[in-house]
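In this section we walk through a basic example: taking a raw amino acid sequence and producing a predicted 3D structure, encoded as discrete structure tokens. The instruction is simple. Fold the sequence below.
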Amino acid sequence: MRGVALCCCLLALPAFAQEAGPLHRFAIFIGQNEGGEGTKPLLYARDDAKRLHDVFLRLGGVKPEDAMLILDETADDVTTALGELERRIRDAKSRGERTTLLFYYSGHAKDGSLRLGTTKLPLESVKSRLATGPADMRVAFLDACRSGAVTRTKGVRRAPAFEVETDATRQAKGLVILTSSASDEDSQESDLIGASYFSYHLATGLLGSADTGDGRVTLSEAYAWAYERTVASTADSAAGPQHPTFSFDLAGNGDLVLTDVAERHEGLRIPASAPTGPYFIIDPRGVVVAEAVKLENERLIALAPGHYTIKRRLPDRLRIGSVDIEAGQVATIDETTFQNAKFSDDPVKGTGISSIFSRHWSLSASGHYQAVFDRPTNAGGYFPSAPLIGAEATLHNFFGRGFALSVDGGYGWTTGVVSGPLLGNLAYKYDLITIGAALFYEWFQGDRWIPFAGIHLSFNIMSREFTDTALAKQSYSTFTPGIVAGLKIRLTKSVSVVARARVHYLLYNVDETRSLGSADFGALLDYEFKD
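The resulting token sequence is shown next.
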């Protein structure tokens, strides 16, 4: 008998994970920000893939050696990786194991193909390969524009309902495909949450937000949560509401358990005594890593160890608290420790990481050593190498996301000796004052490690004063164009350390014309002022 709605499935279906026999899970996670001709680069596809990869390794029963994370690779790379997983699946089946393959893609889809850089992987070939794959159960998550085209030929629902066989004596086998949008809709990203809507809500659902009470998140629960939250989040967007789709080709009965939150024994418990309503769990970067809608029963959200801010929104105010989660422990929210705050006094603005990607300032203190490509002073050189200290201010995301503009100043000093056949050895003190500006690009601003590179222009005032007061003080000033590159390492939401190198060209044209250069290497302590 067919026609069983999703809500009934959530209540009545036996969990596939409870069936007898060993279950071996394999997974492939693909993230590609570039879609080639006719597309604009995405911002969060790589991050989406990494997020889901982490969730399934921690909570989904996927071993690290059975998971592949493929970022910014080609269609051939994906095909090769999938072939390797299929080989491992056949080996597992030969040992009598039941097998499941999880296939996740976040990126562009256009003209009936998944776009992987300048290469294409036809959607129909993906579906065909999954449909005939060796795994007993194949589950695909496709987060891409118009990805619903792959589900419209059979079993598709734009609303959260689907049908299954009701013969409980048969094990569920076959193919299930979840897509982020219908065949005529765009899949949308959000700066506020630093992810695509669908993948973000899917991930938070798998952490426990979608669980209806037994500590395990099933495929039905995850889809229902992702569908409802994605539609609600995009209802007021410029592109219009986005409707995830669910298609299936199943034999037998059973709802696949995707993640087991209770088994992890690590995370956050919202007790039954806590007030009902939505809770937002925010990490030190300001990222909302999970949402939970508390009803009558307690809720368990699987989170990695760390410090988190908890925010509960009421009609007229916020209730804000914090919790520390230790490794292997479950922390419990204590509502009595929460503080009331006006919306205007919210210490964690919004519910996402928009402050990372919005325009904001940072101040830095720096220490450098400048090496000048010049002859030694006792052999006719003019500019010795010297240490510098300085400060700078940077406006992040100035021309757009990732582009930063900075101004800097520094002071350097050293001592040296000029040698000559007539003058002998003349000791001197060397001073350097620099004023500069840089335009550079920062990659992966939402990550802990942030590489950057760009151009730098400096105005240098160099002088040397001899200990022999009979000799006049010498000075020279010039503009020095150059390049800059480095790596920022984020320690907290606002504090970072930076390793940086700069190379400049220096033209000397007083008593002779010489093309010189300099390189400076150093470190900065940076503080970002974020909303």
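Looking at the output, two observations stand out. The chain has three domains: 6-10+25-257, 265-349, 358-529. The domain at 6-10+25-257 is CATH 3.40.50.1460 (Rossmann fold). In the next section we compare this with other chains.
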